[in-house]
Each structure stands twice: as C-alpha cells, then as structure tokens.
Design a protein that fits this description.
mainly alpha
Length: 253
C-alpha cells in the first residue's frame, strides 16, 4: 500500500510541476515570437515542439530511488495510535469505554488526502483513455480518406511535385492523390508518404507549386514523425489550455 501511495503522489506531483513549468516555457516561446517576428518558420516550429518534449520528459523522467530494505519498525505507541486502539492507561485507570472511544483521534487531513489520490489519478487515466479512443477514431477517418482517394492524372501537377521534390532535395517523390473529402492540401503516411490535394481545387500552377512546397517542407523536417511528441503531450495534458494552444501553434508553424 505504501508503494502505491508513493506512485500516486509521484504522478500527481509530476503532473502539477510539469504543468507549471510548461506555463513558463510556453510564455518564453511566445515572447520570442513576439520579439523576433521574422524568426524562420522551421525554428519557430522547433521551439513549439520543445514544449511537447518538456511535457513528456517532465512526466516520465524519474530519478534513482533509494529503497530501505530493512526499515526500522515504528514505535508501539504509533501503531496503537494508527489502529485507534484504546490506550492501556485508560483501561488500568478504570476509564469508561465510551469515554475512551470518544477520545480516539479523528481522521487527519492526510487520511482524506490518501482517499483523494486514487480518485484523481483514476479520473486522469480515464480521460487519457478517452483521448486515445478519440485519436484512434481520427486515425481511422484519415485512413478512410486516403483509401477513397485516387491518383492524380494531371501531368502538370505531377511535374510541379517532381520539381519541388528536386528543389528540396528529398530522396523519394511522394504519391500525389486527389480526394473529395478534404478542402486543403495535406500530407500523410509514415512509411509511404502521400500528398493529398482537394479534388475540386481551382489553383493556378504557381499557387499549386506554393501549396506543394508547403506540404513537402513537412516531409523534409520530418514532421510526420516528430509530430508524435506534441500529439502525445496534448493527450496527456488535455486539462491544460496553454498546451492545446501551443500544439496548435506548432501545427500552424
């Protein structure tokens, strides 16, 4: 039981301290963006990404624990007090039973705290599980969009994509597909990357080249892999409004 209470206390303390530290870090990143409005988008994106990394490390990082193999047994008086046993002096002195029971100490605030710890952690775990279920639903929806899309037959768009891939120095050219379920270009796929374009897009070739360059920049920076850090941090700290804002800023960078 003591080990469980220790783990619950550690988790709650880490959630609280990491949340407080995140406020300072998010404020610092926001201030840097305000003072340096011409900061490169890649560096701005990296700064917001570091917020997610700080949240995960703050929650998961643990220091070495020193466990006492042979703990000193508590005094007998303390054991008697914890179990609310009537003092022996009261018995020898002939104190009535009702009076001795009335003088028994009531539960301390620490006892109430011990009851609230599992409740708070259980609520947090249930909410995190709900967040994971929502993320799984969104992932299935994105896979459905990719499955229902069709390869692009526009030679001009494919030429623009190949040109942008060459300019950015990417090793492989992603698939170019069209989808009627999206309204803006997006990139997806960890292993087989795909650039999805709206099926009803009416962009000119220069506009298509700019949109393509923006999506391919995510591939060059490795955002499809690195994006897992802010996404996981947002699920774990769903209760923190500034974390949701920081993750949104990262996605827009």
């Amino acid at each position: 039981m003591e080990s469980l209470n220790f783990l619950l206390d550690t988790l709650l303390i880490r959630l609280a301290w990491t949340s407080a530290q995140a406020v300072l870090l998010i404020g610092a990143v926001w201030l840097i963006g305000r003072l340096l409005p011409r900061l490169p988008a890649a560096l701005r994106c990296t700064l917001w990404w570091l917020v997610g990394l700080q949240l995960i490390l703050g929650l998961c990082w643990s220091s070495q624990l020193q466990l006492r193999v042979l703990a000193t047994p508590p005094p007998i008086a303390a054991v008697v007090h914890d179990h609310a046993i009537m003092p022996a002096a009261a018995i020898t002195a002939g104190v009535p039973m009702a009076r001795a029971v009335a003088e028994t100490p009531r539960p301390t605030p620490a006892a109430w705290h011990a009851h609230w710890r599992p409740i708070l952690v259980s609520l947090w775990l249930a909410a995190v599980l709900m967040q994971l279920l929502i993320a799984g639903k969104q992932w299935r929806a994105s896979r459905r969009v990719l499955r229902d899309s069709h390869p692009s037959t526009d030679d001009a768009l494919r030429a623009v994509c190949a040109e942008q891939v060459k300019k950015m120095g990417l090793r492989r050219e992603p698939q170019l597909r069209m989808s009627a379920a999206i309204r803006s270009p997006q990139v997806t796929g960890l292993w087989r990357t795909t650039v999805l374009l709206p099926a009803d897009q009416r962009l000119t070739l220069p506009e298509s080249a700019m949109a393509m360059a923006h999506e391919l920049a995510h591939l060059r920076r490795g955002d499809l892999w690195l994006g897992w850090i802010p996404a996981v941090a947002q699920r774990l700290f769903f209760f923190h409004p500034l974390v949701a804002w920081a993750v949104r800023e990262y996605a827009l960078s």
